[in-house]
Design goal:
2 copies of one chain form a homodimer. The first copy, chain A, contains 15 helices and 21 strands. By secondary structure, chain A is of the alpha/beta class. In chain A, a hairpin with a 4-residue loop joins strand 20 and strand 21. The radius of gyration of chain A is 23 Å and the shape is globular. At the A-B interface, helix 3, helix 4, helix 9, helix 12 and helix 13 of A face helix 3, helix 4, helix 9, helix 12 and helix 13 of B.
Amino acid sequence: MDTAEFDLIVIGAGPVGENVADRAVQGGLSVVIVESELVGGECSYWACMPSKVLLRAGAALRGARDAPGAGVAGAVDVAAVLRRRDEIVHDWNDAGQVEWLQGAGIELVRGHARITGEREVTVDGERVLRARHAVAVCTGSAALLPDIPGLVDAAPWTSREATAVREIPESLVILGGGVVACELATAYASFGCAVTVLARSRLLGGMEPFAGDRVATALRTAGVDVRTGVDAQRVTRSGSRVTVELGDGTRVAASEILVATGRTPRTGDVGLDAVGLEPGAWIDVDDTMRVRGSEWLYAVGDVTHRALLTHQGKYQARAAGDVIAARAQGVAVDDAPWGRHVATADHAAVPQVTFTDPEVASVGLTEAAARKAGIAVRVLDYNLSWVAGASTHSARYDGTARAIVDEDRGVLVGATFVGPDVAELLHSATIAIVGEVPLRRLWHAVPPYPTLSEVWLRWLEEYDR
Amino acid sequence: MDTAEFDLIVIGAGPVGENVADRAVQGGLSVVIVESELVGGECSYWACMPSKVLLRAGAALRGARDAPGAGVAGAVDVAAVLRRRDEIVHDWNDAGQVEWLQGAGIELVRGHARITGEREVTVDGERVLRARHAVAVCTGSAALLPDIPGLVDAAPWTSREATAVREIPESLVILGGGVVACELATAYASFGCAVTVLARSRLLGGMEPFAGDRVATALRTAGVDVRTGVDAQRVTRSGSRVTVELGDGTRVAASEILVATGRTPRTGDVGLDAVGLEPGAWIDVDDTMRVRGSEWLYAVGDVTHRALLTHQGKYQARAAGDVIAARAQGVAVDDAPWGRHVATADHAAVPQVTFTDPEVASVGLTEAAARKAGIAVRVLDYNLSWVAGASTHSARYDGTARAIVDEDRGVLVGATFVGPDVAELLHSATIAIVGEVPLRRLWHAVPPYPTLSEVWLRWLEEYDR
């Protein structure tokens, strides 16, 4: 490296950091990115990508099993799944990602970065990098280990170990009932592992209640022991056996324990104290992803706690990279709502697909959130199994779709689809919400027959009734 | 029946006629519907529904085969598929549909209807029905038998016989290369039938050229003998063998021959001559589906040749039923573009899914059509196998997505997706086109990761490059 000064320093080379850097380079800036682990980040190696591969075989088999005449009664070939997982994570080798950085004109520095002053970052305590314009913290989040006696000593798995697994344990107890817990319970059950889910409250909290209820029912049908409303009081490991003691005194034992109780920001050791922020806390930013009160410090992705999803972090990253370049070059900033330089959708339309069985796809507000926001809510519920596309899909299709309408504005503000193969349906709702397309106009968006998308027509009929 | 006079007479009780009638009843009119075959129409018994069931098992098996670790190498259980087909078509019994008509308050008359004067329809030549306000012709279309010597005497199948099949023939030769030909070739090939497709030009003409090319390649991989640019000159049947002689002198023999060369309006014997229209011709209507020059005659669905698709016919039917009621009651008519009483989308956004392998989903204008319309076209092509959602879906995912942008307006005007499981992706494009959502705003519609919908992001990146 021939210089220690760049226009922009990005800390963390996950998808978010990569996108901030890429957009800034495209905007004419010189950019260095600092990474202490693998370039490509959590999502590529230990989260979205491998987990989807672990889930896909089971989903495809269910699809064939439920389609009359496909005549399948096979089981998941776990070894083949793990081989495909290894391919997808490139054997945890980031050479391809490093090559991409080079092609994109982004300088890579490996090591642990800490902010050590205004527009200054020090790597591994020795190498000082200076930013002419901005520093962006994109260090993401890590699994949160709750403060349960004995847990840390029980060698718990997090999503990392669960997605990087080499040998499926005979049994697995999962702490938590969120997306990670539900997805990994689904995958491991499909591998023949005896799974127990211990959740404090209903599954998939924060989503429409029927989503978690449906997933719980399906998990139970798949043989998973789902317990909600329970509290883990103590964890003990004895050799190849880990035991969880619950609040009511009952015990659950398994070969391994997976902790999926939430995320914590990876901001404990990036030098936040040097700029008056609290180490280990989420970082508060405005809609251009700039830290409030700072001229030069940005935070993007999970660390902001705006939406802990890869795609949403990348969305923020595009806005941030563009606005950093614009400000550096004195170009006009477009920060009105839905402008180029702001992540407005974080407040209105965060899509999420949970690849359970059934799949859960949601975007925008739930009924509860919409009511809390004071919106004149109209709820449209429809049984997905009633659309023609469901009956041709499978004789036992079961699903539900809910739309949340803002009656005053005559537009959609939220949607939740629960059922097999609903993932690709979601983007239609996201576009309707973000585009603020009036329901009157949506009557002219004809769903193709026979598909699951026909639920849109049913929603509109329900709305006009 | 206590009266022979109704506000509205609907001729034809397929999905289109049913929807015209239903909306008119909801609008306060008295309605009679006349049907000479099964209530529910072509789509329910001999087209969309049974054909999708014939295709589903093969698609589900391919999905499992291509998902690493699903470990399936099974074959379609034809008997099980046909049993499910029988269920879906209710054994060609329309009792359920008749019940629906009754529940909707629609009077049913069985028989053959002919227009015999102004606002007058005669059933089976003896029973006269009078309409206080309107008559709607919703008789649909039938398979067109091209004028090829020997064809009619060769006992050819149309889509009706092919979807109602009881015993799969050893071999099948298909005349035509459109949607019906491609779908049924896919289904029959999955049943182990030796299929030959004889098409005058490329497959799926009228769609983006790469769609038909991909389907042709896949059909060939599945063992189908696909011949394009050929002309059938003569057909002869000899016992259980039918032989097609081509223009170049070669012959193709098979157990059965399926004609899928297009559709013809079922208007030959509905009394169009009584109102100065040409029997057997398509019927020209305005956007409210009223026959041009008439105050009281409407035509809806396939008979208009606007878009020969069930969902689009039902869309027209909603407009027509509503506007007939509005006009009958002197209520204001909303016939501005995208208004409640017009089928504007017929001109801008007709969606269609072809359930072949790969699936083809298209809406709006193709590149060629957009250029012909004088639009400042920008074409965005993206290899669907490059999105993360494709790589988790299957190790051999192959697909293409094309967006057609109107540069002057900054909106999407067309989209085509080709690949496995793209059907539900289509509605996102339909909403973007119909909603005229600016591309600038679409940047804020974040596709969930990892799904195929991420192609939207790639299109936008390509557009801004």
